[in-house]
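Below is how a single chain appears once it has passed through the pipeline. First comes the sequence as given, then the structure the pipeline wrote out for it. We keep one example in the README because the format questions we get most often are answered faster by looking than by reading.
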Amino acid sequence: MSLLATLTADMKTAMKAKDKVTLSVVRMLKSSVSNEEIKLGHELSSDEEVAVLSRELKQRVEEFDSYKDAGRDELAADIEAQIAVVKQYMPAQLSAEEVTTIVKETIAEVGATSKADLGKVMGALMPKVKGKADGKLVNKTVQDLLA
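Resulting structure:
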Protein backbone atom coordinates (compact mmCIF):
# COMPACT_ATOMS: atom_id res chain seq x y z
CA MET A 1 0.00 0.00 0.00
CA SER A 2 1.45 3.36 -1.00
CA LEU A 3 1.90 6.18 1.48
CA LEU A 4 -0.84 8.20 -0.22
CA ALA A 5 -3.32 5.33 0.11
CA THR A 6 -2.33 4.83 3.76
CA LEU A 7 -2.78 8.54 4.46
CA THR A 8 -6.21 8.54 2.80
CA ALA A 9 -7.35 5.56 4.88
CA ASP A 10 -5.97 7.11 8.08
CA MET A 11 -7.67 10.41 7.23
CA LYS A 12 -11.04 8.65 7.03
CA THR A 13 -10.35 6.88 10.33
CA ALA A 14 -9.41 10.17 12.02
CA MET A 15 -12.57 11.82 10.68
CA LYS A 16 -14.75 9.04 12.07
CA ALA A 17 -12.93 9.19 15.42
CA LYS A 18 -13.18 13.02 15.45
CA ASP A 19 -9.44 13.16 16.16
CA LYS A 20 -8.68 16.72 15.06
CA VAL A 21 -4.92 16.64 15.63
CA THR A 22 -4.37 13.44 13.67
CA LEU A 23 -6.75 14.59 10.95
CA SER A 24 -4.98 17.91 10.44
CA VAL A 25 -1.52 16.30 10.37
CA VAL A 26 -2.60 13.53 7.99
CA ARG A 27 -4.22 16.09 5.67
CA MET A 28 -1.01 18.13 5.71
CA LEU A 29 1.13 15.05 4.99
CA LYS A 30 -1.21 13.96 2.19
CA SER A 31 -1.03 17.43 0.69
CA SER A 32 2.78 17.47 0.89
CA VAL A 33 3.07 14.06 -0.77
CA SER A 34 0.61 15.05 -3.52
CA ASN A 35 2.43 18.34 -4.13
CA GLU A 36 5.75 16.52 -4.41
CA GLU A 37 4.23 14.06 -6.92
CA ILE A 38 2.94 16.97 -9.00
CA LYS A 39 6.30 18.75 -8.79
CA LEU A 40 8.26 15.66 -9.87
CA GLY A 41 5.67 14.48 -12.36
CA HIS A 42 5.55 10.85 -11.22
CA GLU A 43 4.51 8.65 -8.31
CA LEU A 44 6.97 8.90 -5.45
CA SER A 45 9.38 6.08 -4.69
CA SER A 46 9.68 4.97 -1.09
CA ASP A 47 12.89 7.03 -0.72
CA GLU A 48 11.14 10.13 -2.02
CA GLU A 49 8.22 9.51 0.36
CA VAL A 50 10.66 9.26 3.28
CA ALA A 51 12.31 12.51 2.15
CA VAL A 52 8.94 14.31 2.24
CA LEU A 53 8.14 12.87 5.66
CA SER A 54 11.60 13.79 6.95
CA ARG A 55 11.18 17.36 5.74
CA GLU A 56 7.79 17.67 7.47
CA LEU A 57 9.16 16.15 10.68
CA LYS A 58 12.16 18.47 10.65
CA GLN A 59 9.88 21.51 10.27
CA ARG A 60 7.85 20.44 13.28
CA VAL A 61 10.92 19.73 15.40
CA GLU A 62 12.32 23.19 14.61
CA GLU A 63 8.93 24.74 15.42
CA PHE A 64 8.82 22.78 18.70
CA ASP A 65 12.30 23.98 19.66
CA SER A 66 11.45 27.61 18.92
CA TYR A 67 8.25 27.44 21.00
CA LYS A 68 10.15 25.79 23.87
CA ASP A 69 12.85 28.46 23.75
CA ALA A 70 10.19 31.18 23.78
CA GLY A 71 8.45 29.63 26.79
CA ARG A 72 5.27 28.85 24.82
CA ASP A 73 4.66 25.45 26.40
CA GLU A 74 1.01 25.17 25.28
CA LEU A 75 2.01 25.61 21.62
CA ALA A 76 4.98 23.28 22.09
CA ALA A 77 2.61 20.59 23.39
CA ASP A 78 0.45 20.92 20.26
CA ILE A 79 3.51 20.57 18.02
CA GLU A 80 4.70 17.60 20.06
CA ALA A 81 1.40 15.84 19.32
CA GLN A 82 1.89 16.58 15.62
CA ILE A 83 5.43 15.19 15.75
CA ALA A 84 4.08 11.94 17.23
CA VAL A 85 1.64 11.57 14.32
CA VAL A 86 4.32 12.24 11.68
CA LYS A 87 6.68 9.71 13.32
CA GLN A 88 4.05 6.98 12.81
CA TYR A 89 4.67 7.16 9.07
CA MET A 90 8.47 7.32 9.28
CA PRO A 91 10.60 4.17 8.94
CA ALA A 92 12.05 2.78 12.16
CA GLN A 93 14.87 5.02 13.40
CA LEU A 94 18.35 3.68 14.03
CA SER A 95 19.61 3.65 17.60
CA ALA A 96 22.68 5.65 18.62
CA GLU A 97 24.72 2.42 18.72
CA GLU A 98 23.66 1.47 15.18
CA VAL A 99 24.53 4.96 13.94
CA THR A 100 27.96 4.73 15.59
CA THR A 101 28.59 1.37 13.90
CA ILE A 102 27.62 2.71 10.46
CA VAL A 103 29.74 5.84 11.01
CA LYS A 104 32.79 3.74 11.96
CA GLU A 105 32.35 1.57 8.85
CA THR A 106 32.03 4.63 6.63
CA ILE A 107 35.09 6.31 8.16
CA ALA A 108 37.07 3.13 7.41
CA GLU A 109 35.70 2.99 3.82
CA VAL A 110 36.59 6.62 3.11
CA GLY A 111 39.91 6.44 4.95
CA ALA A 112 39.16 9.55 7.02
CA THR A 113 41.67 10.49 9.71
CA SER A 114 40.79 14.00 10.90
CA LYS A 115 38.01 16.57 11.09
CA ALA A 116 39.18 17.87 7.72
CA ASP A 117 37.63 14.71 6.21
CA LEU A 118 34.19 15.47 7.69
CA GLY A 119 32.70 16.38 4.29
CA LYS A 120 33.88 13.16 2.65
CA VAL A 121 32.49 11.05 5.48
CA MET A 122 29.13 12.86 5.56
CA GLY A 123 28.82 12.60 1.77
CA ALA A 124 29.30 8.84 1.86
CA LEU A 125 27.27 8.36 5.05
CA MET A 126 24.04 10.31 4.48
CA PRO A 127 22.67 8.10 1.67
CA LYS A 128 23.04 5.10 4.02
CA VAL A 129 21.10 6.66 6.91
CA LYS A 130 18.75 9.07 5.11
CA GLY A 131 15.35 8.99 6.80
CA LYS A 132 16.53 6.38 9.29
CA ALA A 133 18.54 8.62 11.64
CA ASP A 134 18.48 12.22 12.81
CA GLY A 135 21.01 14.33 10.91
CA LYS A 136 22.15 16.10 14.09
CA LEU A 137 22.94 12.76 15.76
CA VAL A 138 24.83 11.56 12.69
CA ASN A 139 26.85 14.79 12.44
CA LYS A 140 27.72 14.76 16.16
CA THR A 141 28.76 11.09 16.00
CA VAL A 142 31.02 11.72 12.99
CA GLN A 143 32.63 14.74 14.67
CA ASP A 144 33.21 12.81 17.90
CA LEU A 145 34.79 9.86 16.10
CA LEU A 146 37.03 12.07 13.94
CA ALA A 147 38.25 14.12 16.92
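The chain has a mean pLDDT of 88.

See the next section for the split statistics.
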